Amino acid sequence: MKIGVLGGTFNPVHLGHLILAEEASFQLKLNRVLWVLTPNPPHKSGKVILEITERLRLLELAIAENPMFALSDVDIRRPPPHFAVDTMRLLHEEFPGHELIYLIGGDSLRGLPGWFQPDALVEICDGLGVMLRPGVDVDTQQLDQQIPGILRKLIILSGQGVDISSSDIRARIINHRPYRYLLPPRVYETIRESRFYL
Predict the structure, then answer these.
(1) Which of residues 134 and 137 earns the better pLDDT score?
(2) Residue 100 sits in which domain range?
């Protein structure tokens, strides 16, 4: 089986995440996409993060209607710190013999050298499926110098992702600017009704 792994804080989950997952499913011929919610990412300490139970509810609403999507609690059920390399090791134990492709956006790819043990992460992944965001350029040759061997694992998805970010959505909510069409409808309604991020 060929499984895509899409990890993140999902604070909140938005249409950009769903587009990446859907395009990866189609272009890489995935059997499933696992959504891995990270409770407390080490690189986002000090930032305002919605409670894990609330982010989990939003994520469940976002992926409920797509049978290709499944929620993984691999990070939720273990103590911190939650590094991607450890997540992938645990998923390989959970899905032995299956091909696991880590899915990320271009901005995350550019910042990958600063992640915890990026060499080990690239090594343990069967592939890195990347969707570039408009305006985000990645120097793959420089990246290969920083993380040798990454080019062998890199799969650039055709087409471009949309320029949506969770941080921009949070800022829009705080500043009472429109954000409705950046989110799945049920996620938008829940955030609005529950007054999340205000």
Answers:
(1) 137
(2) 2-194
